[in-house]
Amino acid sequence: MSEKLVMYLDGEITGQEKADLEKQLGASPELQEELSSLRQTRAAIQYFGLKDKVAGVHQQMMLELAAPVIPISRGRKILRYSMAAAAAVILLVGSWLAYSFFSLSPDKVFASGYHTYELSNMRSGDGNSSTAIEKAFEGNQFDEVLKLYQEGAGAGIRDRFLTAVAALEKKNDPLAIRLLKEQLESNRLSSKPVYNDDSEYYLALGYVRNKDYDFALPLLQKIKDDPEHTYNSKVTTRLIRKVKLLKWR
Amino acid sequence: MEVVRNLPDEEIISGLKTGKRAEEMIRSLYRGYFESLSWYVMNNSGSRQDAEDIFQEVVVSFIDLVQKGKFRGDSSIKTFLYSMNRHTWLNELKRRGRALAREEKYERGQDRVEMDTSHQIADREEKAAIAGLVAALGDTCKKILTLFYYENLSMREIVDATDYENEQVVRNKKYKCLKQLEQMLHEKPALRESLKNLLNG
What residue segments make up the domains of chain A, in order of their start? Predict the structure, then answer.
């Protein structure tokens, strides 16, 4: 019977033979106990088999997981840190350039180079009495300057120049550009140019704010290349680069 | 270099249930969870060896549950293994009679899924004794019995895997080995009780 029970345990008995055995099992506590014992034995084998399999994998995995990290040579370390540092610098420079590029505006570039004209510069050695435009300019009444000029009050070279500066103050760039160009044209025809350096500089700034970069750049470059120019120190490489960036954008 | 990927829970469960690719699934459990679970043991009075032993035992218990269809998948494998690992290690600490102050301190504030796995984990010593009893059989008996009852190989396949002449010889040998082990178990009533628990889950 014992062999039959093992075959039953192994699922090798079928059909009528199986039905007969199960009938016997139902009627015999001894047989049930024997079958139970065989099942327990089988469970012990299965547990052992599982434990043995896991133990085998365990050994492999302990070797894999404990694999030493290959030390990096000093040279490679230096190379790695250098590359990281270079990448950081590139990132910083790139970010700065991107910020500079996108935050740049004609108004900002204009403001970085512009200053209100000092009237005292004009008077030195002049000797003439003040005109209405000059008085208004002195009092920072730029609207008044423009109004007086439109009414025909300003007839002289000096008034035209001050009106051009007042136009820049009031962001009337087309008017400023026109007046300053007239000024430079007059100087070109004159044997005694006046306010020439001032006019060139303010005209260049007017061009920048008016987005006439193709006119602004050669003028700025001319000032920068002329060490004798009054505004030479004001036209820096940085200023020209900004105007170029504006043009490319 | 082998590219190691994390297998999804469903694939691991399926692989363990069918027994196909079981070793690959076990390796996946080790790669995914050994480090973090061993960290728990080693940070609670355990050594590296303790961590390895506990993890190995947890994996065995987990696969046993999966193969018996008793892992319901209510939680992820990760959560389940963490819980089993904790229970197994705490039981071992208690057995060793060590103070659990550090453990209790660690446990406070831990947001964990409560699972009653204690009943699923029979006493470590008894389980070790069961495995030890089978291991005490001769190599031939161990091989035939595990190939048949654990690996589910047919008699023909076992003939191919051993030096025996034919299936009948293997069948006879298997019967004798089984009865030998059964007799050994008869002499250990306590182990039979443990096996009953193992069978009943």
Answer: 2-65, 70-103, 106-248
Answer yes or no: do A58 and B56 touch at CB < 8 A. Answer: yes
Question: DSSP for chain A?
Answer: -HHHHHHHHTT---HHHHHHHHHHHHH-HHHHHHHHHHHHHHHHHHHHHHHHHHHHHHHHHHHHHTPPPPPPPHHHHHHHHHHHHHHHHHHHHHHHHHHHHHH--HHHHHHHH--PPPHHHHHTTT-PPPPHHHHHHHTT-HHHHHHHHHTT---SHHHHHHHHHHHHHTT-HHHHHHHHHHHHHHHHH-SS--SHHHHHHHHHHHHHHTT-HHHHHHHHHHHHH-TTSTTTTTS-HHHHHHHHHHHH-
Which residue of chain A comes nearest to B184, CA vs CA? A41
Question: For residue B112, is pLDDT > 60?
Answer: no
Q: Are B139 and B173 in contact (CB under 8 A)?
A: no
**Residue B69 covered by a domain:** yes
The H or E element that residue B29 is part of is helix B22-42
Nearest C-alpha of chain A: how many angstroms from B166?
18
Average pLDDT across chain A, whole number: 87
Residue type (1 letter), A225: D
With contacts defined as CB-CB under 8 Å, which chain B residues touch A60?
27
Owning domain of residue B149: 127-200
Report d(CA A214, CA A84) in Å as an integer: 41
Does the pTM exceed 0.80?
A: no
Q: Is residue B117 part of a domain?
A: yes
pLDDT, residue A248, reads: 84
Q: How far apart are the CA of B149 and the nearest CA of chain A, in angstroms?
A: 6
Which tokens belong to B146? 């595990």
Q: Work out the angle between the directed axes of helices B167-186 and B189-200 (0-180°, nearest 10).
A: 110
Contact A64, B1 (CB under 8 A): no
Nearest residue to B175 (alpha-carbon basis) of A47, A2, A21: A2
Share of chain A above pLDDT 70, in %: 92
How far apart CA A144 and CA A133 sit, in angstroms, is 8
CB contact under 8 A, A38 and B178: yes
For the domain bounded by A106-248, which CATH number is listed?
1.25.40.10
| Whether residue B102 is found in the same domain as residue B170 | no
Same domain, B106 and B134: no
Q: Is B76 helix (H, G, I), strand (E, B) or coil?
A: coil
Please give the tally of structural domains in chain B.
Answer: 2
How confident is the model over B79-110, as pLDDT tens digits?
999 999 999 999 888 888 754 555 555 555 45
